[in-house]
Amino acid sequence: MRDLKCPGRSFVHRGVIAQVFAALLVLAVGSASAVEPTAATDKPTIAIVGAGSMGQALGRLWAADGYPVIYATRHPDELDAVLERTGHGAKAASVAEAVEQAGVITLAVPYAAEPGLARAHGRAMRGKVLIDVDNAFVHRDGEVAEKAEAMGEALYSAGLFEGTRFVRAFNLVSASRFPAPDGTGHQVFDVPYTTNDDSTRPLAEALIEAAGGRAVYEGGLDNAREY
């Protein structure tokens, strides 16, 4: 902060003193706010829809790497234990609230839930990066899985969430494969991914690496028929 000195006179009007004091206060507040930690970061906020084993595995690693993480579920008030395990300021919110706050949304739910999520929140997700880690299983997800497998899960899901910058990734990795946040005893594993928007690639690869993987780009979504 630069010094502010009063003019060199014997007597200074009280109004001038008040003005100088006000200027000093403004500068002091500005300087403090510039150095204090804030929620702002150069990494985007990630809303993880679903707080099961997969959502938590990714959330813990991304939060440890400095990404603001919000777990999004129908009952965010029941996630205290999840937030404690994740640490690093992770939060919980409703799906609508989390989607509004986040620049990146990760789907980590049973595949059959995707059509309903798209109807309820698809419009709010448009223009955002959507990372889909869900897998369709006919025995669990029924008709939705049959349609997705016939078209290709990546293409089917991207069609549900029209207008998103869609990334299909982590679908060949089980939750147990991810390392602990401290990386103890970890061996890097390949994570194939595809996208409908090449501008997402730097972020997608950064998130894959933060989760302990090695990004393997396989092009457009039509190349993800096997995952």
Describe the structure.
This protein has helices at 14-35, 53-64, 80-86, 95-101, 114-125, 138-141, 143-151, 153-160, 201-210; strands at residues 46-49, 69-72, 91-93, 104-107, 129-132, 165-169, 189-195, 213-217. The chain is α/β, with parallel strands linked by helices. Strands 3-2-1-4-5-6-7-8 form an eight-stranded mixed beta sheet, sandwiched between helices. Strand 4 (104-107), helix 5 and strand 5 (129-132) form a beta-alpha-beta unit. It is globular and about 40 Å long.
Summary tags:
alpha/beta, eight-stranded mixed beta sheet, globular, about 230 residues
| Class derived from helix and strand content | alpha/beta
User: Strand portion, in percent?
Assistant: 15-25%
- Straight-line N-to-C gap: 57 Å
Shape: globular
What characterizes the major β-sheet?
8 strands, mixed
In what order do the strands lie side by side in the largest sheet?
Answer: 3-2-1-4-5-6-7-8
Which value, in Å, is the CA radius of gyration? Answer: 24 Å
> Which residues form runs of ≥5 with pLDDT under 50?
1-39
Q: Compute the number of helices.
A: 9
The secondary-structure element order is: HEHEHEHEHEHHHEEHE
Total number of strands: 8
Helix content: 40-55%
The averaged pLDDT comes out at 85
Note the topology:
Blueprint: H1 14-35, E1 46-49, H2 53-64, E2 69-72, H3 80-86, E3 91-93, H4 95-101, E4 104-107, H5 114-125, E5 129-132, H6 138-141, H7 143-151, H8 153-160, E6 165-169, E7 189-195, H9 201-210, E8 213-217
Helix pairs in contact: 7-8
